[in-house]
Amino acid sequence: MEVVYEDNHIIIANKKSGEIVQGDKTGDRPLSELVKDYIKERYAKPGAVFLGVVHRLDRPVAGLVVFARTSKALSRLNNMFRNGEVHKTYWAIVNKVERTANSDTFTTVEHWLLRNEKQNKSYAYDHEVPNSKLAKLEYRLIGQSERYSLLEVNLMTGRHHQIRCQLSTIGFPIKGDLKYGAKRSNPDGSISLLARKIDFVHPVSKEHIIVESPLPADPLWHTFKMTGI
Questions:
Q1: What SS3 state is found at 40?
Q2: Do residues 26 and 157 lie in contact, with contact meaning Cβ atoms separated by under 8 Å?
Q3: CB-based burial, 102-131: b 16+ in 10 Å, e otherwise
Q4: In tens digits, what is the pLDDT along the chain, a chain of 229 residues?
Q5: Which phi and psi angles does 212 have, rounded to 5°?
Q6: Cβ pair 109, 136 in contact under 8 A
Q7: List 28, 37, 58, 104, catalytic entry
């Protein structure tokens, strides 16, 4: 567990792929408990440690997760996430995308996503269907390697498996993501999607906070020739 930012009200951890943010039926120890242990030890806190979970990342995804250390921060962060005031940037490795004249500019993608609870999977439609929710994101090409491309993705809505589903639908399944069309898994069970940057106004101090995650250990992340950034 790696802490990349902390103050009296919030703490931001860098989640490894395979970790869960909050406890589930697997019984695996979640990142939230590891962060509590860190706070308890670092600040010699007696008794229970307060920690609020305000958002999650899918288990095979790595990157930044924000937690609240106070009830005031939790309430305000919940509203900020709900209102789209927290800006999250993701990096995704996909099969090689051929460059075009406008590769460095953002392309906006819209679908209606329908979640299948039993399959734990979302399906994308180009029109509204019953119980579907509008999903919007934008992406651009920022790096190339011999076999893969690196996309920067900005979420404009927050839907279940949104990036995974929408990129797959437009022909760019994320490397390792068998559920959404990748041809093979990654050796460690991860998918090549990283919550790379988070940008928001601090809910209490009103300071502008921008935090970036380190790249995962997989050497592939470090092989891209970067463009457009």
A1: helix
A2: no
A3: ebeeeeebebbbbbeeeeeebbbeeeeeee
A4: 899 999 999 999 999 999 999 877 777 899 999 999 999 999 998 889 999 999 999 999 999 999 999 999 999 999 999 999 999 999 999 999 887 767 779 999 999 999 999 999 999 999 999 999 999 999 999 999 989 999 999 999 999 999 999 999 999 999 999 999 999 999 999 999 999 999 999 999 999 999 999 999 899 999 987 665 4
A5: -115, 145
A6: yes
A7: 58
Does the model's pTM come out above 0.70?
yes
- Give the length of the chain: 229
Query: Which helix (H) or strand (E) segment is 81 a member of?
Result: helix 71-82
What is the gyration radius of the CA atoms in the chain, in angstroms? Answer: 18
Specify which residues 174 forms β-bridges with. Answer: 94
Structure tokens at 189: 């069970």
Among 12, 7, 8, 1, residue whose Cα is nearest residue 199: 12
DSSP-based three-state secondary structure for 18: coil
Dmax of the chain from CA atoms? 59
Respond yes or no: is residue 58 known to be catalytic: yes
Residue 65 contacts residue 15 (beta carbons within 8 Å): yes
